Amino acid sequence: MEQIISPIALYLICGLGAIGVALALPRRGHSGTKIPLHIVGGLVLAMAFGFAALVLGLKATDAGNPLPNYFFYPFAAIGIGASVRMITHKRPVYSALYFILTIIASCGMYLLLSAEFMAFALVIIYAGAILITYLFVIMLATQAPVGDNDDDLNDVDAVAREPMLASAIGFVLVALITVSMFRGIGDLPHSQISSAQAADGVLAVLPKKIDKILDRAGLLEDGWLVSRDSETGHAIIDVDAQTVQIQLVDGVDSHGHEIVLATRTIGPDQWPEELAAQNLDRLGYNLLNDHPMMIEVAGIILLMAMLGATVLARKHIELEDALKAAQARKLGTMLDTDESNSVRGQA
Amino acid sequence: MNHLNHLVQAMDSVQLAQMSFPAELPQTVLAPYLFVSAAMFAIGLIGFLTRKNMIIMFLCTELMFQAAGLALIAFGRHHLQADGQTFVIFVLCVAAAEAAMALALVVLLFRHRESLSASAWKELNG
Lengths: 347, 126
Prior knowledge:
The structure holds two protein chains of two kinds.
Chain A: H1 7-24, H2 37-62, H3 72-88, H4 92-112, H5 116-140, H6 155-158, H7 163-184, H8 195-200, H9 207-216, E1 224-226, E2 237-238, E3 243-252, E4 258-266, H10 279-290, H11 292-313, H12 321-335, H13 337-346
Antiparallel strand pairs in A: 1-3, 2-3, 3-4
Helix pairs in contact in A: 1-2, 1-7, 2-3, 3-4, 4-5, 12-13
Chain B: H1 2-13, H2 27-50, H3 54-78, H4 83-113
Helix pairs in contact in B: 2-3, 3-4
């Protein structure tokens, strides 16, 4: 069984990572030293990242296996660097902004994994909505205002709790996960579906999309449409052989069946290049066909969260008796306009 | 100058997507993505354990969600299935719900103690 990376190298990388994060976590003092500790920590982390990239790359090229795309390395470096800066920065607003950077770097990796829809959804939902909520709460719940000097910061933000122990725990965890993962990754079952099926398996259930593409390619005359299976409504298409059947339809008979005047098959020589299911088609079909109940569950979770947040954050206003009486009078005037006129006259 | 030309040519030939889509993702390409995902998860965990500010602690849970999402998408790509991406939609949904609840809780707790420190609520230990 071939391993992607030797466990010794992996333990070394995790050790370096743990030391780097522990050094970079916020602490008081050390203003006398020439190089701040968090910069040393950052350098150690960069070393760990470079070493990991080198080892993974060497192993892959040894066996003549393909490497990740060039764009992967900057995205991974930005993602990990920004997430480290997020947990080590002393000011919460900057932490939130570094988290946005992490999100955008992972969006880049999603794009490399050809999950375009999820990448854009992530930018809109996370960077656009969730992080703005975080920023609002950070600004709502600020403690005593502080100046530009980090020494003025409250202990809550300026001092980490047990940095050494936590980093050790975290990187022991990551070492165990990755060692077992890389040991088993060679035994991963190959995909159950062929590449052609993955690209076009959804196509048969989207007859209208096929109609549109064939029409754009100029293959359909007036009245011609893709043949549908009379029971399932699926298009009659063979993606592997690149044949699609089309028919001329003239209305519907008394039993609700289509009256087919003629059928014809479009072969591989005429097959339009864009006749393939997009990633988005597959995602939408998977979501609505295989997991329809999950949408309801998601809706209920979001509704409950909205209600819960409203109830939790509601402010109980303690009014004095005089204010309460004034409020009651005001409410009364809204119900009875005559009274309100008389009140205004008295005022 | 020659080297620069070579580099530009190499960059031109690089496709944006990792392998053109229907091709299967080899294991040596999958492994670095999983490594990044594991590292991000560990960093989120360390942040959750060490930081005292409750807002940062919840931000770290979001980072862990993010790492899980990356692993899901990478595995989904490896198996040529859309289920990984579908699941990330629900991870996003749960993350949004969690953010709303957690931030409401943080505001509530802050009003009681005028402090964001998790140790301000020490007496809650079981």
